[in-house]
Amino acid sequence: RRHINVDEEVLHAFEENPGNSIRHVANTLGVPRSTVHRILKENGLHPFHYQRVQQL
């Protein structure tokens, strides 16, 4: 079972830097990637990277 602290830490990591990858956050917090992905999904967030594009 997950702890509430893990959920909060994962969400905080993505609030601070939305460009973080699931793999990076999982390695930093020492939790499985699937756990990070599940936490994002449960909170209505989507795992994607922002991509800078040039303005046309």
3D structure, described in words:
Pfam families: HTH_IclR. Residues 9-41 form the HTH iclR-type domain. This is HTH iclR-type domain-containing protein. It comes from Camponotus floridanus. The protein has 56 residues and is mainly α. It has a single domain, classed as Orthogonal Bundle (Arc Repressor Mutant, subunit A), CATH 1.10.10. The protein has 3 helices and no strands. The radius of gyration is 12 Å and the shape is elongated.
- Rounded Rg: 12 Å
Q: Give the number of DSSP strands.
A: 0
CATH architectural grouping = Orthogonal Bundle
- Average of the residue pLDDT scores: 87
By DSSP (H or I, 4+ residues per run), the number of helices equals 3
Output the helix-strand order.
HHH
What's the CATH class, please? Mainly Alpha
Oligomer: single chain
> Roughly what fraction of the amino acids lie in strands?
under 5%
CATH topology: Arc Repressor Mutant, subunit A
Span from first to last CA? 48 Å
Write down the domain tally. 1
How are the SSEs ordered, and which strands pair?
Layout: H1 4-16, H2 22-29, H3 33-42
Helix pairs in contact: 2-3
